[in-house]
Amino acid sequence: MLLKIAWRNLWRNKRRSIITILAVVFAVMLAIVMRGLQYGTYAVNIKSSVELFSGYLQVQKNGYQKNPSLQKSFHYDATLQKLLAGQPGISGYAPRILGDGLISFRENSLGTAIMAIDPPSERRVSVLMERLNAGQFFTSDSSSAIVVGYKLLHNLQAQIGDTVVILSQGYDGSLGNLKFRISGSIKTGSPELDGGLVMMGLSTAQELLTMYGRINTVAISLTDLSRVAPVQQALSRQLPDGNLTVLNWREIMPDLEQTIKLDEVGGTLFLAILVVVVAFGIMNTVLMSVTERFREFGISLAIGMPYRKLVVLVMMETALIALIGILIGNLLAGAINYYIVQHPIIFGGELADLYQQYGFLPRMESSLDSTIFLKNTLIILGVSILMSLYPVFKVYKLEPLKGIRYT
Predict the structure, then answer these.
(1) Worst-scoring range by mean pLDDT, 232-236, 251-255, 263-267, 345-349?
(2) Per the count of CB atoms within 10 A, which of 9, 21, 28, 82 is most buried?
């Protein structure tokens, strides 16, 4: 009976109820769409970053992340390879040497970052080799060919096929230099990599840097981003060398995580303002509805209706308004998020350059993660119920005689 009365009371003033429901619909829809865009864009940028360079996880020597050096290297032995090959959730792993040096072509010399890889292993971990801009990639880790960033190639005033000299300090402190032939250039979209990266074979770099059998890091690719924490914990327990550690992408790229957190704070603040505005709109609607019916409530109390039933009635009316708005808002938000998932928003021009400057892809994607819908639904519903407490309190304190005389 109370539910039927609450439903009828809801439509006694249709215009007011519809306006309030539309406000809830707009709030729910905007909150879910905004959160979907945020989390979807975060996910695609994290995936792009880890697959471009860092990997989801890395095995390193203790202290290497804070102070990288050739001395913080380790032997890439069969025990470590067997552990990585047998770990569930790992889709690929690649040994790397990271160093620095000086690249020279004729009278031009530039500082460069050296990244040594094993091509077959690297293809299973990163997409760097797919970012070839011109020429071709070397196929052997002992090749004398190198691939450089396209901006570095331009700054050297060299061309594909030219021979350059790379000078670098080795693991034992000696200075080593070798001649290399530029076989190709890459374009990653990262100014740092495009302007200063040299990629060479792992065995060749070990000869240049006197690091025979040693590497700096092992980059690890996973089947899914959600596997990061369990795989990291499992590897940390099983590493054969106590001087080794396993870092996740957050620890490897703290700047990316901080940028995401800062953006999320802005989104949370906007959502909070939106929810507060809608909450006061709901409270205003319920309070006006209750005040208009003080005489009706007074008569109901006078003939013996319990206070608790009136309280439940008002709560039901508030819940019905919120639930109708939440249901419609979820349906509309789901449709919008699904469309954006299928058709990502791609930026161009100066806006695309700005995104790339800060290390983000020039695109926005959405997410259909159920937790986004559930969290925002519960927030709006909870705040709606909370804001009905003041009108409910007014009803609870209403005296029958004062209610009957109220005009």
Answers:
(1) 345-349
(2) 28
- The whole-angstrom separation of Cα 273 and Cα 282 is 14
pLDDT for the residue 148: 92
Question: Do residues 298 and 402 touch, judged by C-beta distance below 8 A?
Answer: yes
Q: 3-class SS at 171?
A: coil
Using alpha carbons, list the distances in angstroms from residue 378 to 112, 190, 384: 52, 40, 10
Closest by CA to 133, choosing from 199, 54, 208, is: 199
**158-184 pLDDT tens trace:** 899 999 999 998 888 888 888 999 999
Per-position DSSP letters for 190-207, written without gaps between them: -HHHHHHEEEEEHHHHHH
Query: pLDDT grade, residue 406 (50/70/90)?
Result: low
The residue type of 67 is N
Residue pair 380/373 in contact (Cβ under 8 Å)? The answer is: no
Q: Measure the CA angle with vertex 403, ends 397 and 407; round to 5°.
A: 130
DSSP 8-state class, residue 334 = H
**Sequence-ordered strand ranges (E) for 174-326:** 175-186, 197-201, 214-215, 217-222, 244-248
**How would DSSP label each residue in 114-139?**
EEEE-HHHHHTT-SGGGGEEEE----
